[in-house]
Write a structure and sequence with these properties.
Elements: H1 4-7, H2 16-32, H3 37-64, E1 66-70, E2 76-81
Antiparallel strand pairs: 1-2
Helix pairs in contact: 2-3
């Protein structure tokens, strides 16, 4: 069986916000339980592809974000890569 992302090539063109909105709609439909089995499987696979796309876009954004570093006097010293995971 093909990976969901390879099956839904149109997803690559979606912005993060549009992909997330569609993913939320899919989750809502599945939670209601009023979707036939075959359609449930199809939209679940699309949801998986949307999730992968959103994850990829978030990772790309995180790699572009930098945080400003300050010296002991509180003055700007430079920048360093942003670490989304807190240390400690």
């Amino acid at each position: 069986m093909a990976k969901p992302a390879a099956k839904f090539l149109d997803i690559r063109e979606l912005s993060f916000e549009r992909a997330l909105k569609e993913l939320e709609q899919i989750v809502s439909r599945l939670e209601r339980g009023d979707v036939e089995l075959e359609e449930s499987i199809n939209i679940w696979e699309r949801g998986e592809a949307l999730k992968e796309h959103c994850d990829r876009l978030l990772k790309q954004a995180e790699s572009r974000v930098e945080k400003i570093t300050l010296d002991a006097k509180g003055e700007v010293k430079g920048t360093e890569p942003f670490d989304a995971e807190p240390q400690g």
